[in-house]
Design brief:
Immunoglobulin-like; Oligo-1,6-glucosidase, domain 2; eight-stranded antiparallel beta sheet
Length: 887
């Protein structure tokens, strides 16, 4: 969701649109959080210490590099933490440090002023790179003037975040020597989720750190219990090099537990083994001293979410299936023809371009009549695309078209179902025993049942931080003031001089004043927060009851939705989400929980709160690589940043992440290519921050480049999400224009001659989705960078699972390129490019298989690419992509 902006008009329609605010963790109830922006980080998931083995303790190898244990000479931090110091503003009245370690909270970590005018604070930080800025006087976000430039990262607002490395600094190490391994920096910490991550009861992700370029090969040697259980060896991949260190990793499958393992490291003729008690050149000693893991995951994420193909729907703009419930009976509603020209004045609107966004605000009053009936009618369309999971923007009763101003969590909006049905529900209170099912509610539950029958999961948008002014409990406060039983539900700052309160006086002297999400005394009154429980008692119990109601209607989870996407989740303190997860999983164990967190989200993804987040941290490097022109990052940096995205969290989380490019809160993916070199979701709202943003239709080359990005999304770690209409060629600036009516072929010609259903793009989406669904490695596989050629614009990565490797080859350049893809297979092994229509066919499901999706098969006479010399050669056109799969 985006923060609402005030409009010239005082009518309700004035807040029909949302404007961006990147929000971050609320780590304290009193926190006010404004994100200055962070790009990436590689966090440590625990406070594990560096495993340092002195050379004197390694017997008896003469080839291990002769170094002493690492101490302060390579930048190790003292145990009492890192001290931040700021000295460059004599006018500072307050300074806080905000960063990845506190959710970018502007108030969580105040700094103390010294006699010399400097400000400082010492914080306990885990080993790793942490990004930060100083917040001066509450609103000035300052890059550290004394920060190390090597750790600066883009803040996605045109500036830089500072960075600090806590722990050993590999840049200070001596140069690697041939046939010698610097044992003192080898690190594998079983308590660190970066190193040991039990993904499931039969999947174990392992990692180990060494000096950069010091080791030529790393393998894990492992075995499981059983008769004649033998040690197996699996080679690990180099997944990231940063600041003088290199990380190797991989995932092993185990059919029994516990798993015993150790590492074999090679550099030329030198081989050493790293195990639980040290480092040795003797494998037998490593077998005796092996690490042991019980294969008990600390937590699990829903299995279905790891193979999901998501589709986000903005209900009011997806499909009008029933004209009888069309909104057109409020002064801020005007029904518009579905196929009309979005950019032109429509009948009944005030003429003139000045009245489109501002003035009369025509665009905010438009309604198009999307509803549940339309959703259900188009399930076969989504099935033909290959979609398996649907995320619906808010569906609950609300006055706006976007429904983020909830008027009643208990009921589906009657404009989406049966108009006027709320009149039959008198007598309902906050007591769940009084709640009834409206006709619209039952229609929605019928839709969920049909969606389940057709093989879909359905997730609703949970907007639990705030409500709209029309919410009956807030209206009770307006009518009764402090005597209302719901007064404690909201952050009321002043009840004013009159009861009932006059809405025209909200926020003014003498009027009702309250905290709201959009602005002080705004249109979205916020629920009261509580330090111990996250939310005050009233809203706490209400949201818990609402959660159970829709997950398991009348106690039956089979009839309920399959999870929640949580709007502005960072605005509710962690204690609430910890308890809320328990409610969700107790009610429906395989329900999916996805938070809207734009930043890195480690505090929410430790297994006690969310299963995943909307993965904007994937979208940002993808934009920087595929979209940007002048400022485009190189293939090597792109693969490095993908590695950081893949391994920032426990892998069971990474596999379930909702990977997106765009949403109802951004410009559309296609238009990003027309408007490159902008911060992600920056300067893209024409009406207030992007007057130079081009709304032009993408060129053929830009469509091709978009396909390349989509192919990568479908093959990467995490579950891909498509914003409605991207698959058939919709483009637009940010809201409200990204919420245009869906383009349908059966509705005939659109008034705007440029609007069309782009069949070739739909076919491409259908193909890449079918590839993803067909190959287990793309749903569960380990991610590893394989090749980058910055001069040629080539990036290659692989997904590995149970012996299957899928290689994704990207030619980001504007010229044809021949690539020799390094593969692990022996010579003469045949590969096919599953993206090539000449080598594979997309097969449509049988008509009577209502839950089936398109599949993909290799043509019997398909040309293959043979491995030779450890490589597979393939020629790609400009902006071409290949997905190489072993025959």
């Amino acid at each position: 969701m985006k923060r609402l902006t005030s409009r010239p008009s005082g009518r309700f329609v004035a807040f029909d649109t949302l404007t961006i605010l990147r929000t971050a963790a609320v780590l304290a109830v009193t926190s006010t959080v404004w994100l200055s922006g962070c790009d990436d980080q590689t966090p440590q998931m625990s406070t594990g210490t560096v495993n340092v083995v002195p050379v004197a303790d390694v017997q008896p190898t003469a080839n291990v590099a002769d170094v002493q244990p690492l101490t302060m000479d390579v930048g190790a931090q003292e145990s009492n933490g890192h001290t931040f110091t700021y000295r460059d503003n004599p006018n500072a009245n307050s300074v806080h440090v905000a960063g990845t370690f506190n959710g970018w909270s502007s108030v969580a970590n105040p700094m103390t002023r010294a006699a010399d005018g400097s400000w400082s604070v010492t914080l306990p930080l885990d080993e790793g790179v942490h990004h930060y800025k100083f917040v001066v006087n509450g609103d000035q976000w300052i890059t550290d003037p004394a920060g190390d430039p090597d750790f600066f990262e883009p803040d996605n607002y045109g500036g830089q975040n500072s960075g600090v490395l806590v722990g050993p600094d590999g840049r200070k190490l001596p140069a690697p020597q041939p046939d010698a391994i610097l044992s003192a920096v080898i690190r594998h910490e079983p308590t660190d989720l970066q190193d040991v991550n039990v993904v499931s009861k039969n999947l174990l992700r392992l990692g180990i750190r060494v000096q950069e370029s010091d080791v030529s090969e790393v393998s894990v040697v492992f075995r499981t219990p059983g008769e004649n259980a033998a040690w197996k060896t699996q080679r690990l991949s180099s997944v990231q090099s940063r600041f003088g260190f290199e990380r190797f990793g991989g995932m092993i499958s185990a059919d029994a537990s516990p798993v015993s393992y150790f590492f074999k490291l090679r550099d030329g003729n030198n081989v050493v083994y790293h195990h639980a008690t040290g480092i040795t050149p003797d494998q037998s000693a490593a077998e005796v001293g092996a690490f042991v893991n019980s294969m008990q995951p600390a937590f699990e994420t829903p299995d279905w979410a790891k193979s999901a193909v998501w589709y986000q729907i903005f209900p009011e703009r997806f499909r009008n299936g029933d004209a009888s419930n069309d909104p057109n009976d409020q002064k801020f509603e005007r029904l518009i023809s579905w196929t009309s020209d979005w950019w032109k004045n429509q009948p009944g609107e005030t003429p003139g371009e000045d009245n489109f966004y501002k003035g009369a605000g025509n665009v905010w009053q438009r309604r198009y009549g999307g509803d549940i009936q339309g959703l259900q009618q188009q399930l076969p369309y989504l099935r033909s695309l290959g979609v398996t999971a649907i995320y619906l923007n808010p569906m609950f009763e609300a006055e706006s078209m976007h429904k983020y101003d909830t008027a009643d969590f208990r009921h589906i909006d009657d404009n989406f179902g049966i108009k006027g049905d709320l009149k039959d529900l008198s007598g309902e209170t906050d007591d769940p025993a009084t709640w009834k099912w409206s006709k619209s509610d039952l229609l929605f539950l019928d839709f969920v049942a049909e969606a389940h029958k057709q093989g879909f999961k359905v997730v609703l948008d949970g907007v639990f931080n705030h409500v709209g002014r029309a919410h009956p409990f807030f209206q009770d406060v307006v009518e009764k003031g402090p005597a209302s039983k719901y007064a404690s539900w909201f952050e009321i700052e002043d009840f004013g001089n009159t009861i009932p309160a006059d809405p025209e006086m909200f926020g003014k002297d003498g009027g009702l004043k309250f905290k709201a999400w959009d602005q002080p005394s705004g249109h979205l009154p916020a629920f009261r927060k509580n330090a111990e429980r996250g939310l005050a008692e009233g809203p706490y119990e209400h949201v818990m009851a609402i959660t159970r109601r829709w997950l398991a209607p009348d106690g039956d989870p089979s009839r309920g939705i399959d999870g929640w996407r949580l709007d502005v989740a960072n605005d509710i303190p962690h204690p609430f989400w910890i308890e809320w997860r328990k409610t969700v999983k107790q009610t429906k164990p395989d329900a999916y929980i996805c938070g809207e967190i734009w930043t890195w989200a480690q505090p929410w993804l430790k297994g006690d709160q969310f299963d995943a987040v909307m993965n904007y941290q994937f979208a940002m490097p993808a934009q920087n690589f595929f979209v940007d022109q002048r400022d485009a990052i190189k293939p090597s940096e792109f693969l490095s940043r993908l590695s950081r995205v893949a391994y920032a969290y426990p892998y069971q989380v990474s596999l379930a992440q909702m990977n997106l490019f765009d949403s109802h809160d951004t410009d559309r993916l296609a238009s990003m290519f027309v408007n490159p070199d902008r911060p992600y979701d920056g300067a893209n709202r024409i009406q207030d921050n992007g007057p130079d943003y081009s709304g032009a239709k993408p060129t053929e080359t830009q469509w091709q480049r978009m396909k390349q990005a989509v192919a990568t999304q479908m093959m990467f770690v995490g579950a891909p999400m498509t914003y409605y209409g991207n698959e058939n060629g919709m483009w637009s600036p940010d809201d409200p224009n990204n919420r245009q009516p869906m383009v349908w072929k059966d509705l005939g010609t659109y008034e705007n001659p440029e609007i069309e259903f782009r069949q070739s793009l739909f076919d491409f989406f259908q193909r890449v989705i079918a590839i993803r669904r067909e190959l287990p490695a793309l749903n569960l596989g380990y991610f590893r960078p394989v090749l980058s050629d910055d001069d040629a614009g080539i990036a290659v990565f692989a997904r590995d699972h149970n012996g299957q490797s899928v290689y994704v080859v990207i030619n980001r350049s504007d010229t044809e390129a021949t690539v020799g893809v390094p593969v692990d297979q022996q010579d003469g092994v045949a590969f096919h490019n599953w993206l090539d229509p000449q080598q594979t066919d997309v097969v449509q499901p049988k008509v009577d298989a209502t839950d089936a999706r398109p599949t993909i098969i290799v043509k019997p006479d398909a040309r293959s690419h043979l491995s030779s010399g450890g490589k597979v050669g393939i020629t790609l056109p400009a902006y071409g992509t290949a997905v190489l799969v072993q025959k």
